[in-house]
């Protein structure tokens, strides 16, 4: 069975500082990995996805993530935080079998301080 | 292109009642998935429909059911509501099974059971 662990339910960063959100996964087959963002009172928006092509994946809004098979990790980073990055971020895994079942991590809420 | 729409956005029901939630996917998308989001359990997969057939199912009791119509619109039904069913219910649509995980989420229906 697949699972996702996000380290840190809350992260506080200063505007302009590095954003680093950690995600570790467990999967019995090569996984598909995703990061989603959720703003208050909204649904989820896809930031980026890894599907076994390049291990460094670039997404929207300046975010990127690196797939490290040896560490079973898929950490999300952004070099310089902006106030608009304040939101909740979810890492998710799919085993790629027929269908679109996603298993999500617990989420990390990001607070950006001016 | 219009995004995923969910109706109603907010709903208050009494324990023991039943409820039906509706989801209209992005035009051309044939896969519709449903997720439950609660503060305690996070985001959990309910089920996925593709071409009017349930393709994947999560670990929820039989009180939770769904269906998909020929125009890809989907409904989910919860019978005999319990207080613990209070949650944000998110619907997501995908173009087809080959694009694993590239799901587009609606804004959700917030269900409150009293």
Q: What number is the mean pLDDT of chain B?
A: 93
Shape of chain A: globular
Share in β-strands of chain B: over 45%
Strand percent estimate of chain A: over 45%
Unreliable stretches of chain A: none
User: Care to count the β-strands of chain A?
Assistant: 11
Low-confidence stretches of chain B: none
CA-based shape of chain B:
globular
Total of DSSP H or I helical runs spanning 4+ residues of chain B? 0
Explain what the structure shows.
- The complex is a heterodimer of chains A (114) and B (114).
- In chain A, 39% of the residues are buried.
- Chain A has strands at 3-7, 10-14, 19-26, 32-38, 44-50, 56-58, 64-68, 73-78, 87-94, 103-104, 108-113.
- In chain A, strands 2, 4, 5, 9, 10 and 11 form a six-stranded mixed beta sheet that branches. A five-stranded antiparallel beta sheet of chain A has the order 1-3-8-7-6, with no helix packed on it.
- Chain A is built from no helices and eleven strands.
- With 114 residues, chain B is mainly β.
- Chain B is 0% helix and 53% strand.
- Chain B is built from no helices and eleven strands.
- In chain B, a hairpin with a 3-residue loop joins strand 4 and strand 5 (42-50).
- Chain B is globular, with a radius of gyration of 13 Å.
- The termini of chain B are far apart.
- Classes of the chains: A mainly beta (114), B mainly beta (114).
- The interface between A and B is medium-sized, with 25 and 26 residues.
């Amino acid at each position: 069975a697949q699972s996702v662990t996000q380290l840190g339910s809350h992260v506080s960063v200063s505007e302009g500082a590095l954003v680093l959100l950690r995600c570790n996964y467990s999967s019995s087959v090569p996984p598909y990995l995703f990061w989603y963002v959720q703003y208050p009172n909204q649904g989820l928006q896809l930031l980026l996805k890894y599907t076994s092509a390049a291990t460094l994946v670039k997404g929207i809004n300046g975010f990127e993530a690196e797939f490290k098979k040896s560490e079973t990790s898929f950490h999300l980073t952004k070099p310089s935080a902006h106030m608009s990055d304040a939101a909740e971020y979810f890492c998710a895994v799919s085993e790629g079998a027929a269908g679109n079942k996603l298993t999500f991590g617990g989420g990390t809420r990001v607070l950006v301080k001016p | 292109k219009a995004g995923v729409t969910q109706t109603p956005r907010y709903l208050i029901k009494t324990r023991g009642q039943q409820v039906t939630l509706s989801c209209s996917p992005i035009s051309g998308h044939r896969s519709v998935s449903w997720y439950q989001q609660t503060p305690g359990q996070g985001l959990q997969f309910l089920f996925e429909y593709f071409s009017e057939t349930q393709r994947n199912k999560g670990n929820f009791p039989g009180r939770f059911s769904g269906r998909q119509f020929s125009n890809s619109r989907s409904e989910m039904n919860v019978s005999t509501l319990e207080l613990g069913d209070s949650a944000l219910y998110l619907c997501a649509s995908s173009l087809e099974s080959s694009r694993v995980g590239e799901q587009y989420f609606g804004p959700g229906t917030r269900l409150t059971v009293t």
